[in-house]
Design goal:
single chain; Beta-Lactamase; Hypothetical protein af1432; five-stranded antiparallel beta sheet; 16 helices; 5 strands; binds fe (ii) ion
């Protein structure tokens, strides 16, 4: 997929380089990364250290707690000999243990040892699980790349003749960042693992079917990844509650789309209206959605696509308060919400792309692989054909 052409020119690259090389931005970025990590694992203390290029010692680049820990006291040999970006429980290092470091993750980019992420015990005093370690591994790649990226951009002037390569690297970093962010969002709610990723893929598949340009498709893909970022401010307890929500709790959860909007509007994206699409992912055509109670004509096509993709994933995933629906029931449910919640044009595109995937007409299916085993795909396909006919008006129009 093509990333924004605006980023392709040197001026934009230089601007971005300036932003990324700025010491304040870098510190801020690492601090927010560290806070995402701490929040994700409910750890009380944590730090990111960076390899001092002049020698064999480390320096702290972001930390919360571990005030008594001197980087010089850390045994780097042990950390270097552990797996690249593989978290491990600290057992041997007395200095780390005395400071309260429970988990150490060595950060590597290719063959270069860059630094570490150190984490203290959890607030809940529970041990770190295998799943925690898996997620930490994904995040550690991101932190490693950010640290490395900082160094890369410091050398920007030397690399201007190699912009293309640098740009490719940046694009990869960007996508890794999105992945790590989405993982952090989805990890908040035990029932919504990979939700953001699926919504991103469903939404971009629909946009492609509607004939959107590659650039715009990438924009809605990013919107899908980040639409629920506002959930980071809602308590885990509330998100994972198994009993019905009170009115107050509903209002608290509904806050997330506006919070997502506020966070995302701080970021300058090369795509148009990402923040508005995100803001309106819980709006409805009949004007009963939130936060702005907009109706059909006020909603952009992007917002309508994201709403449908988000709801479809909610229906076909297990949730704390209900079982997942099979594909057939989800389609019936969506059809019954046409013109109230979903736009028929978007529904038509969704049915078309899903039918093409079932018939094997698309080389890289975006929807079907996420749906688990659906036994009666021929029945579904027949049902989709009926819906497509109905929605495209062929039935009545002859
Ligand atoms: Fe949402
Ligand atoms: Fe969502």
């Amino acid at each position: 997929m093509e990333l924004g052409k605006a980023l392709f020119n040197i001026a934009a690259l230089a601007d971005l380089g300036e932003e990324i090389t700025s010491e304040k931005n870098f510190q801020e970025k690492l601090h927010s990364l560290l806070h995402v990590v701490l929040g994700t694992f409910l750890a009380s203390r944590g730090a990111v250290t960076c390899q001092d290029r002049s020698g064999d010692t480390m320096a702290f680049v972001a930390r919360r707690g571990f005030d008594d820990l001197s980087p010089a006291a850390i045994d780097l040999g042990r950390i270097r000999s552990a797996g690249k970006n593989e978290p491990f429980l600290n057992a041997d290092d007395a200095a780390l243990a005395a400071a309260g470091v429970e988990v150490v993750t060595p950060l590597w980019v290719r063959d270069e040892f860059i630094g570490t992420i150190l984490l203290g015990r959890k607030f809940t005093a529970e041990p770190y699980s295998r799943e925690d370690f898996e997620l930490l591994r994904v995040i550690s790649h991101q932190v490693a790349i950010t640290l490395n990226n900082h160094a890369l951009f410091l050398n920007l002037s030397e690399q201007l003749n190699d912009n293309r390569k640098l740009y490719e690297e940046m694009r990869r970093i960007y996508h890794d960042t999105l992945q790590a962010f989405a993982a952090a969002i989805d990890a908040k709610d035990m029932y919504t693992r990979h939700h953001s990723q699926r919504v991103a893929r469903y939404a971009s598949a629909i946009a492609r079917e509607l004939g959107w340009s590659d650039h715009d498709i990438e924009g809605i893909y990013v919107a899908g990844f980040l639409h629920d970022v506002g959930k980071l401010v809602i308590s885990n307890e509330l998100l994972n509650k198994k009993t019905p929500f009170t009115e107050e709790e509903k209002a608290e959860i509904r806050r997330h789309s506006l919070v997502s909007y506020k966070i995302i509007s701080q970021i300058k994206f090369p795509w148009k209206d990402v923040e508005k699409i995100i803001k309106h992912h819980h709006e409805r055509l009949d004007g009963t959605g939130y936060p702005d109670a907009l109706s059909r004509d006020d909603l952009s096509e992007g917002a309508k696509i994201l709403t449908l993709a988000d709801s479809f994933d909610a229906m076909t995933s297990e949730r704390a308060y209900r079982r997942k629906m099979d594909l057939r029931s989800a389609l019936i449910e969506m059809n019954s919400c046409l013109n109230l919640q979903f736009d028929d044009k978007i529904m038509l595109a969704f049915c078309r792309v899903l039918d093409k995937e079932i018939k094997g007409e698309l080389p890289e299916p975006d929807i079907l692989p996420h749906l688990g085993r659906e036994s009666d795909l021929t029945v579904i396909s027949a049902m989709l054909e009926g819906l497509i006919e109905e929605l495209s008006g062929q039935k009545d129009g002859g």
